Structure formats: structure tokens, C-alpha cells
Amino acid sequence: MDDKIILLQKILDNSRYTVALCGSGMMEEGGFIGVKKQEKAYAIEEKYGYCSDELYTSGFYNTRPELFFTFYRNEMLDFPPELTASGPALAALEQNGHLHCTITSNIYDIPRRGGCKNVINLHGTIYDNHCPRCKKTYPLEYIKNSKRKVPLCEHCNIPVRPLVSLFGEMVDSQRMTKTTLEIGKADTLLLLGTALDSEVFSHYIKYFNGRWLVIIHHKPHYMDYSASMVILDHPKNVLPKLT
Ligand SMILES: [Zn+2]
Asked: What is the CA(160)–ligand 1 centre distance, in A?
């Protein structure tokens, strides 16, 4: 692997503009398993009587807010992914000019909490919540610690909305456009904890027109051959070795 690190360092040194895409592997390396993953999906259906595709939707938020927030607190907020060495390593790369934009589909704001400045949280974050009517914002703690099962706006008495993309919802169009532009600008695209066929990113990756596509992911994938370089490991074991 050390040869690959040296080569990757050379790629970054020569890259004019580098963009990183952070997928679900960035949460898995912090011990978090997504609710859509097979190993969790069955337990969720047993526990709630519905699958996550039904629970984590605006339909449930609107019509069954108690169940929605029980699910959201238990499965999304109570055991978030632990921060790994990846976030600070990305921030260090950004600081020394080797990384220009980090785009993540995870809702835990991992790159920014690691210190990155130019971040696109494609699906929003658990830290942003507002009242859909008066737009008053509420911190994560308000959702977590609400004495009622459903956190209500203090003024309007209606459920506060976590500003995350729920399943089946359109992604914020400004973020989509910005993501497309950033990828189109990139000379090097890093796929961190995600594969080329990623449900979230595959559509955006089509806009990549640069020189080097690098995958750092612990799971091999049959499309890996089309990348310039593949490192089969967790990003947290690789990124801190770069300078
Ligand atoms: Zn309100």
C-alpha cells in the first residue's frame, strides 16, 4: 500500500483542483450502519412495523410525526458515527491546498466537524432544523431532548422539521448545481467510502472530466477497474498518511 500512497501523494501534488466525495463508508468507519443496509433493515421492520423506506419520509413526518421522531431519534441521533481520523486529515489537505471541495451525502457534517471549510452537505445535516411555517431555527438538542415525543415550534405548535433529505425527496437544487459544478471543475476526484455505482453520487460522477479518479473504499467493486487508482481500505487508514 505504501507505493500507492506515494503515487496518490504525487497525484495530489500535481492536481490543479481536487474534490472529495464522502459516501456511507465514511460513517461505517465510525461504527455507524445506515438504516438501508441489510443487516439493519430487518431489525428496523421488526421494531417499528415499517421499513425505513416508509419511516424516513416526509409522508411519515407529516402524517405520523410521533413514529417519525421516535425512529429519527433512535436510529439517526442516539448513536451517530464516531469521528475518525478522516475529518481532520481532509481538513489538513484542504489547508495545505491539496483539497478544494468536500461533498458529503452523510447528515453528520463529518468533514466540517473535522475542520474542512469548503463543504457541501448534499443531504443537509442533523444540526439544522426549522419550523416549516415561521422558519425559526432549532438546534439538534431541541430535537433530541424535546420532552414531547414530537418537537414542536414554540410559536406555531407544529412539528419542527429536521433539514435533511428524507428518502424519496428531491435534493436541494442549489446544492445539486454546486456539486455538479465542483465535480466538473475537478482535475482529481476522490471517492471516499463509496463506489462508482453509488446510488447518490453516480449521477454526479458523470460530470467528472478530469485526469485522476481515485477510490478509497474497503469494499471492492466490479466497476473499480475504470478508476485511475483503487485503495481497498477505510479512508481513516489512508488519508492521515497524506500531506
Ligand atoms: Zn414556527
From this structure: 8
